[in-house]
Design brief:
about 200 residues; alpha/beta; seven-stranded mixed sheet; three-stranded mixed sheet; globular
């Protein structure tokens, strides 16, 4: 497949950084805000930000249900930090009215690694990523409490699951888009090509 077209859900969060990382990973990247824009993409990134805000805006912009349907139908999707929360089938501590897109049989805990002032960076060994640990930027990061039988754990940090994959869906607790190391995005772009 030539360069796949990968959208970045551009409702809130670090959209620009994902667009840059995807371009560096040899994908044509474009922002996605409306349901009709889902039709022209081969994969989608759900960026870090505020999962509650992304949930509310997804409903407001009319993309919640179309995106859920696209993920169920096999659209390759990758979520970082808040994006991981949005791909979870269950949140342990949701805000009132908070919804997710689902797609990965996992239970997640929001802000599990602590508040903003407890943010940190750490090397994380991610299955499928060659060349040593990736630099994980953890900002009010969630972790995965547990996964179902279909989900594959790709990485752990401090005894907690921080990267998972299930079918065409992939998610990390950390922000690889903030580091200049594009190997996680390359892994996702390869998955998009394989799905096509």
């Amino acid at each position: 497949m030539p360069r796949p077209t990968i959208g970045v859900l551009a409702l809130q969060g670090d959209v620009r950084e994902h667009l840059t990382a995807l371009a560096a990973a040899d994908a044509a990247a474009s922002p996605v805000r409306r349901p009709e824009e889902l039709a022209g993409i081969d994969g989608l990134v759900i960026p870090g930000g505020e999962s509650t805000t992304i949930s509310k805006l997804a409903v407001l912009f009319g993309v919640m249900e179309p995106l859920r349907a696209a993920i169920r139908a096999g659209l390759p999707v990758y979520g970082s930090c808040a994006g991981l929360i949005m791909l979870a089938d269950k949140i342990l501590d949701p805000r009132s009215g908070q919804e997710t897109f689902g797609g990965i049989d996992m239970i997640v805990r929001r802000n599990a690694f602590g508040r903003q002032n407890e943010s940190f960076e750490a090397g994380v060994e991610v299955a499928g990523v060659e060349g040593g640990p990736v630099e994980g930027v953890f900002i009010r990061a969630p972790w995965v409490e547990s996964v179902g039988a279909q989900a594959q754990v790709l990485a752990e940090y401090g005894g907690h699951i921080v990267a998972v994959r299930q079918g065409n869906a992939m998610a990390t607790s950390f922000h690889p888009e903030l580091t200049g190391d594009h190997r996680v995005h390359e892994l996702f772009v390869a998955a998009v090509r394989a799905a096509a």
